[in-house]
């Protein structure tokens, strides 16, 4: 029901992303695919990914922000899995109506993502490519869940953010309970 695509090149070195993932990975009906563990050679199993997406009602992309964007393997996943005739194009409807939640961690603090900060722009300025990727495939773009200042945030605050993410997904699950697919 929830397909969580994790794109961290070094999952064992992740701090912020790992705390977020650990908070949600046991939720019922949540399937996790750690892209860099599963496809270290970038040889993505497109059919398996599309099958997982077809089963899902909510797609979650979870990753650290790299150069204002996604890690390379998630970009490659977009290129291969969100294919013409399946995800977009005439008559393509595989993802239409599914929800999409972007969960990202950034090194930059909220202050850094401001006109006066080192990144000179608000973080919202960097979201359109992801948002339009989801929308172009007919998905509903949910309010992103972004954890800023991933290197500086203390453990307690990070745990609080992780709880909030879990509550977001629990609320989503509660709202969609009973709306599962066809009976067995
Ligand atoms: C190659 C690379 C590029 C990065 N680019 C950005 C960036 O554009 N903006 C930013 O705020 N942080 C950037 N960072 C910092 C990461 O987002 C940060 O290390 C990560 O979110 C921490 O999460 P983790 O503890 O799960 O690894 C970058 C880090 C690396 C290694």
Features:
binds flavin mononucleotide; alpha/beta; about 15% strand; Rossmann fold; about 180 residues
Overall description:
The chain has one domain (2-176): Flavodoxin domain (Rossmann fold, 3-Layer(aba) Sandwich), CATH 3.40.50.360. It is built from 6 helices and 6 strands; from the N terminus they run βαβααβαβαββα. Helices cover 35% and strands 16% of the residues. Helix 5 links the parallel strand 4 and strand 5. The chain is globular. The chain has 184 residues and is α/β, with parallel strands linked by helices. The structure holds flavin mononucleotide (FMN). The site of flavin mononucleotide has 15 residues, from helix 1. Flavin mononucleotide (FMN) binds next to helix 1.
**Between the first and last Cα atoms, what is the distance in angstroms?**
15 Å
- Helical content class: 25-40%
Number of domains: 1
Shape: globular
Q: Mind telling me which CATH architecture this is?
A: 3-Layer(aba) Sandwich
What's the CATH superfamily, by name? Flavodoxin domain
Mean pLDDT: 96
Number of helices: 6
> How many beta-strand elements?
6
Provide the fold topology.
Elements: E1 2-6, H1 16-24, E2 30-34, H2 35-38, H3 46-55, E3 58-64, H4 72-81, E4 99-105, H5 128-136, E5 140-141, E6 145-147, H6 155-176
Parallel strand pairs: 1-2, 1-3, 3-4, 4-5, 4-6
Helix pairs in contact: 1-6
The site of flavin mononucleotide has 15 residues, from helix 1.
In short:
With 184 residues, this protein is an alpha/beta fold.
């Amino acid at each position: 029901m929830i397909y969580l695509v994790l794109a961290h090149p070094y999952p064992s070195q992740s701090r912020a992303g790992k705390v977020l993932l650990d908070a949600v990975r046991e939720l019922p009906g949540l399937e996790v695919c750690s892209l860099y563990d599963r496809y270290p050679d970038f040889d993505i199993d497109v059919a398996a990914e599309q099958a997982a997406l077809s089963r899902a009602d909510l797609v979650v992309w979870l990753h650290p922000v790299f150069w204002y964007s996604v890690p390379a393997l998630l970009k490659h996943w977009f290129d291969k899995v969100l294919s013409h005739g399946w995800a977009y194009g005439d008559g393509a409807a595989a993802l239409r109506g599914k929800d999409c939640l972007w969960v990202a961690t950034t090194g930059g603090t909220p202050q850094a993502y401001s006109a006066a900060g080192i990144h000179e722009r608000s973080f919202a300025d960097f979201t359109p490519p992801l948002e339009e990727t989801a929308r172009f495939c007919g998905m509903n773009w949910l309010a992103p869940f972004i954890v800023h200042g991933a290197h500086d945030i203390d453990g307690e605050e990070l745990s609080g953010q992780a709880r909030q993410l879990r509550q977001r997904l629990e609320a989503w699950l509660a709202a969609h309970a009973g709306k599962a697919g066809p009976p067995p």
